[in-house]
Amino acid sequence: MHALVQLKKMSRTYTLKRRAEQQAQTRQRIVESAVDLHSSVGPAATTISMIADRAGVQRHTLYAHFPDERSLHLACSGYAMDRDPLPEPEPWRSIADRRERLRTGLTAIYGWYARNASLAACVLRDAEYHALTREISDMRWGPYTAAYRDVLGEKLKKRQRAMLHLALSFHTWQTLLRQGGLKPGDAVEAMVQAVDGAK
C-alpha cells in the first residue's frame, strides 16, 4: 500500500511538472510571436488575435498568461532586451582618450541598432503616438540613453553635447547607413568627428 501511495505521488509530481513546462513553452511562444509582430507591423498595429494566431493558441489562453496589453508588452520588451541587451556604458568611462571613448561607445551602440533595426524602427515610430509603446520604450531605453549621454558626454561643451545627442539617435544611424550608404565604421568615424569638431 505504501509503495502505491508513493507511486501516485510521483505520478502527480511528474504531471504537475510537465504541465508547468507546457505552460512555460506556451508563454514563450506567445512572447516570441508578439515580438515578431512588433518587429514587422509594430506594437500599435499588433492585435491580440494576430498574436494568438501566430502562436497557435486561443485568445483565452493568451489572456490566461497576459491579462492585459501592458503585461504582454512588458514581457515582450523584457524578452527582447534579454535576447540582445543594450551595451553597458560604464566600462567606457575608463577610456581616457575622449575620441576613443566615443568611438568605442558608438561602435557598440550602432552594432546593437544594426542587429535590432526592424524592432527599433517600429517601436520608435509607434512611440510617437501610442502611449503604451512610449511608456515601455522610455522605461527600457531611457536609463541607457541617459547613461550614454553621461559617460560619452563627460567634459563636452554645449555644442558637442548637442551633436552627441544626434550621434546617439537610432534615426541618425539609420540615415547614415540606410540612406547615406556609409559602412558602420565610417558612420562611427563621421559622428566622432562631428562631435569633436562642434566647439
Helix content: over 70%
Total count of domains = 2
Low confidence ranges: none
Structural class: mainly alpha
Short description:
With 199 residues, the chain is mainly alpha-helical. The protein is built from 10 helices and no strands.
Give the SSE layout.
Blueprint: H1 2-40, H2 48-55, H3 59-65, H4 69-83, H5 98-115, H6 117-127, H7 131-152, H8 158-168, H9 170-179, H10 184-197
List its traits.
199 residues, Tetracycline Repressor, domain 2, mainly alpha, elongated, single chain
Task: Give structural notes.
The longest helix is centred in the first third of the chain and has 39 residues, at 2-40. The protein is mainly α. The chain is elongated, with a radius of gyration of 22 Å. Helices cover 78% and strands 0% of the residues. It has two domains: 2-82, Tetracycline Repressor, domain 2 (Orthogonal Bundle), CATH 1.10.357.10; 86-197. Helix 7 (131-152) packs across helix 8 and helix 8 (158-168) packs antiparallel against helix 10 (184-197). It has ten helices and no strands.
